[in-house]
């Protein structure tokens, strides 16, 4: 199995993140485009990113901006996000040889994305999701998005993986199924997100388990009547059966990002993993 880490807030530079990645014997770094350091105009300087990773013998996956909203009703906004995806794919293509050198060629390079719920209108008796209200318009954008991504990716070994967050809406499930009809799309299972909300996304994920290509691994505590669920804990600090989830990742031939938010939690998670046979064999 291949294990990696996210870009961490405590690490102010790419070099800091890669140094920690190498120190912890992890294989890859997931570049988070929510950070100013990894915005598209920076990521497109691929020579710098390539050289820095090559010197350490690691490679990258990419996490698109969480605000990405290709279905925005404002076409100026939607087109900006589409252009962001196109140019991110082009940058990922130039970074792909790092995967070939230091990763597992049987695992495509992942560009991770969230689904944007869109806005809702609050009525006296309910909230109306505008994408649900305008479902045909919403779905049309995803059919077009799928076609565009297939064109942009071409023959490159890149997969756009859709991550679960705080619960897929029904209209999102329909859109995701549309995308999963393409070999260029897969699923990211964030095990902490799903646990913290009571595993409500798990039936949908398992129904499409053949499309699992990426895992975000962190521990979590589920919500209860008296408390809100929370996640991004170090492995061993929550309630999840981590070996079971790692086994599923291995069976899916999926990469695993140890998606904690602090250096200390990441270090603790790596130590925790060493007790698992799957890590010792990676």
Architecture overview:
The structure is a single chain. The protein is of the alpha/beta class. It contains twelve helices and twelve strands. A hairpin with an 8-residue loop joins strand 10 and strand 11. It has an eight-stranded parallel β-barrel, surrounded by six helices. It is globular.
Residue runs with pLDDT of under 50 for 5 or more positions = none
* Elements, N to C (H/E): EHEHHEHEEEHHEHEHHEEEHEHH
User: What value does the average pLDDT take?
Assistant: 95
What's the story with the biggest beta sheet? 8 strands, parallel, barrel
CA-CA gap between termini: 5 Å
Strand order of the largest sheet: 1-2-3-4-7-8-9-12
Count of helices? Answer: 12
**How many DSSP E strands?**
12
Shape: globular
Radius of gyration: 18 Å
Structural class: alpha/beta
How much helical structure, as a percent, in the residues?
Answer: 40-55%
How large a portion of the residues is in β-strands, by DSSP E?
A: 15-25%
Keywords:
eight-stranded parallel barrel; 12 helices; two-stranded antiparallel sheet; alpha/beta; 12 strands; 20% strand; 44% helix; single chain; 282 residues
How would the blueprint of this fold be written?
Layout: E1 3-6, H1 14-23, E2 28-32, H2 40-43, H3 46-56, E3 59-63, H4 75-102, E4 109-114, E5 120-122, E6 127-129, H5 130-133, H6 135-153, E7 158-163, H7 170-180, E8 185-190, H8 191-196, H9 202-207, E9 212-217, E10 219-221, E11 230-233, H10 242-251, E12 255-258, H11 263-273, H12 277-280
Parallel strand pairs: 1-2, 1-12, 2-3, 3-4, 4-7, 7-8, 8-9, 9-12
Antiparallel strand pairs: 5-6, 10-11
Helix pairs in contact: 1-3, 3-4, 4-6, 6-7
């Amino acid at each position: 199995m291949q294990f990696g880490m996210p870009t961490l807030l405590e690490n102010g530079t790419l070099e800091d993140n890669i140094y920690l990645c190498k120190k912890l014997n992890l294989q890859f770094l997931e570049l988070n485009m929510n950070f100013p350091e990894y915005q598209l105009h920076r990521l497109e300087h691929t020579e710098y990113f390539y050289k820095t990773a090559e010197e350490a013998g690691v490679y990258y996956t990419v996490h698109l901006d969480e605000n990405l909203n290709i279905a925005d009703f404002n076409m100026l906004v939607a087109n900006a996000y589409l252009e962001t995806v196109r140019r991110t794919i082009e940058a990922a293509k130039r970074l792909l040889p790092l995967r070939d050198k230091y990763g597992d060629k049987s695992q495509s390079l992942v560009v991770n994305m969230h689904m944007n719920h869109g806005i809702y209108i609050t009525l006296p008796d309910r909230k109306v999701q505008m994408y649900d209200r305008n479902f045909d318009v919403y779905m049309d954008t995803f059919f077009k998005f799928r076609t565009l991504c297939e064109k942009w990716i071409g023959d490159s070994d890149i997969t756009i993986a859709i991550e679960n967050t705080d619960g897929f809406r029904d209209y999102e499930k329909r859109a995701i199924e549309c995308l999963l009809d393409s070999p260029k799309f897969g699923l990211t299972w964030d095990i902490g997100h799903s646990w913290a909300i009571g595993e409500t996304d798990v039936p949908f994920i398992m129904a499409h388990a053949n499309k699992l290509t990426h895992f975000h691994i962190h521990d979590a505590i589920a919500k209860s009547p008296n408390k809100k669920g929370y996640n991004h804990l170090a492995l061993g600090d929550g309630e999840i059966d981590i070996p079971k989830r790692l086994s599923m990742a291995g069976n899916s031939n999926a990469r695993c990002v140890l998606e904690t938010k602090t250096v200390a939690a990441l270090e603790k998670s790596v130590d925790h993993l060493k007790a698992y046979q799957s890590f010792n064999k990676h």
